[in-house]
Amino acid sequence: MSPASAKTRPKADRVQGIASDLSDLTLHEGKALRVVLGGSIKKTPTLTRTIDGASSIKLAVDDPEDKLLDAALLAEKFDAELDDLWFRFKAADYDHPQISLVLEERAVAKLRELKGPVKAYAHRGKPNELTRAEFIIGLVRQVKPAIPFYCPQLHKRQPIEKESQGKKAKDEAKANRGKGLGETKGLTVKGEKATRSQLDVIDRALRTAESHDSPFRVSVSLIAGIIVESLAGKASSNILQLIPSTAAASGINPADVEAASAGYLTGYIDGEGGALAYFHSHPNAEPFEITQAVQRSGAGLASNGQANYGPWVAEARELVEAFEGGSFGNSRERAEPVTFEVEEDENYWEAIQRLAEDVNWRAFFVAGRFFFIDEIELFRGMVRLAIDRETPGVEKVRFKFNVDLPVTDIEIEAWADQWSVPPGGVITLAEYGPASLGFGDVPVKADAKGSKAGLSSNRNAKTREGRARYLVESVEAPLRDDGADARLVKIKARKPTAPLPEPAAEKRAASSSSSSGGMGEMGTLEGTPEDIVNQVVDYAHSHGFPSVTRESVRQANAAHGPTISGGTSDHQGPPNVRWAADISNGVETEEETHLAAAIANAFGIPWDGSGLVTHTTGGYRLQLIYRTMEGGNHFNHVHFGCAVA
Prior knowledge:
This protein is an alpha+beta fold.
C-alpha cells in the first residue's frame, strides 16, 4: 500500500532513524557528516537497527585523491548522531578510489574498548557469587555514563495496587518489550468483538495479576469474573461488582481496575484470602471454581461457579493467552558453571555475546538501552503491529516454505514513516497462508479429500493471529538525501528459538561419560527407544524431578495399559521397539514447562508450549505431550515417547 493511499500512524509511534536523511547524520559540533567527509557519497548509505549484534551505519565515499584517507577524522573515534541515536566510527575498508566506513552503536563501541581479564564465581548460594545475568550486567555497568538496561532476572516486579502504578507498568512493558494485549484482532467479550476500552480494562487487570505472580489459571479466573460481572467495564465501571459494604471495608474504589483486581487476587478484606490463597490450597481447582470462591456469587452457588462463570472460561483463556503471548517455555536461572569470565585481551562486547550464546539468549541494544533476555521472553511481549493484507504502510511480505516445515523467517517491505515496530518488538501475520500458522505447526495440512491448505490447528486461530507471532530482528533503512519523504525499509522477522540450559562446568573443562550409563546427552538418536527415553529421564532427575528414575519409569510402564482409544501405548513396550515416560511434580509447574521445552529443543521437535506433537526423525518416531487433554489429561505431567519408525 503506497503512502498516498495509506492511513498515517501517529508520529510518536515510530522507529527512530528509519525516516531520517543523510543530512541528519551529524557530528558533535552539529556539522553534517556528509559535509565533513567531502567527496562523493557512493550509492545509498544504510542504517541497520538489529538485535543480532550491533546496530550500524554503512556508507562509501569516492575519494580519488585520498584526501579522506589522510584526514584527521578517520584517525579518531568520532561520534555521530542520527535522530537521538549515537554511533561511533568503527572501521574503514580502503579500495582506491573508494573508502567504505562503518559506524556502530556507541554503547557497543564503548564495551569493545574495555578488556579482560575479569573473572567471577558462579552463583552457588554463597557470598560474592553471581548469576550469568548479574555478571553480564556488571560488565555493562562499567561504561560511563551509565547505560539503562533490562533483564527479567534482575527486575523483580512490584505488586500493582492502584491505577497510577498500572499505567507506569504498561509504559515500562512497552519500552522493555514486555507482555500486553497490544494490537490484537478477533478477541471477544461474551461473544461480541472486544472494544478497545474493554481490552484496556483486561490489559490493566492482567498486568496487575502479572505483578502478583499470578498462576495462569488464577489469571483466567480473574478475567472470567470481569467478563461476567461487568462485560469488562462496558456494562458497569464496577468491574467486579463489589458490594458497597465490601468496598467500604476494604477501601477499594470499585472503578479502579488495578485496585479491584489486586483485591480479587489477595483478598478484598484483610484476613479473607483471595484467589491466590484459594488456588494454593486448591491446586486442582478449575478457573470458574476459583472465581466463585472469591466472588461468592448467588448465581453460581449451586454449581460452584460452573453455570455462570464456566461458559466464559474459554474466552477468558484466549484473552490471557493473547496477553502472555502463548506458552513457549519459561525462562529461569538454572545450574551454573563454576566461573564466568572475560578472557585475556577479550573485549567486553565479545565476552557478552559469547556468554549469551552459551544459553541461546540475546544481548543487544535498542535506542541506547541494553537488553539481556531470551527470545521466548521477547516473544511473549505485547503485539506492536497485527499485519494482514490491508495493513497501512506494508508494501510486501516475502517468505519461503516447505510442505514439511513451518515458516520461520519472513521479510517485509514497508514505508518508513508508517512502520512502528522496533527491533525486538512482536508482530503477527494473518492471511498469508503457511506464514500465518502457529509457532511450530506444520504449515500445510490435507483435508478429508486430500486438498491441502494453510490452516492452523491452534485454538486461537479465530483471532486472526493464530500463533503466527514473529520477532522483528532487524530494520534496514536507506539514508537518502534527495528530499523524498517516501522510502521503503526492509524488515527481517522470525520465530524464536528456545533458551538452552546452563552448560555444566565439567563439560567446559573436559568431556566425561555419564555415571549412569546410557547413550549420551539428551538429543542423541542412538540405541533402543528405551535408551533415548532414558536420556530424558536422566535429565529430568537432575532438573527438578528427583523421584523420576529409570527404575521408577520401568515400574510405571509395567502397570500401564493401552491408550484411551484401545491402541498399544508406548509405555507398554517392548523397550527395544517402543518406550515412554510420564514425568510430573504437580500441575503445570514451571519445571514441567521447562522440561517440555528442553526436550523439544534437544530433539528438534516443533513445539509451542502445549499439545500433542509427533515427530519422526533419524529412524525414530518421537512424541511429546503436555498441557492438553489429547490422549488423556496431560496437564499434570510431561509425556515423552519413542518408537522405532
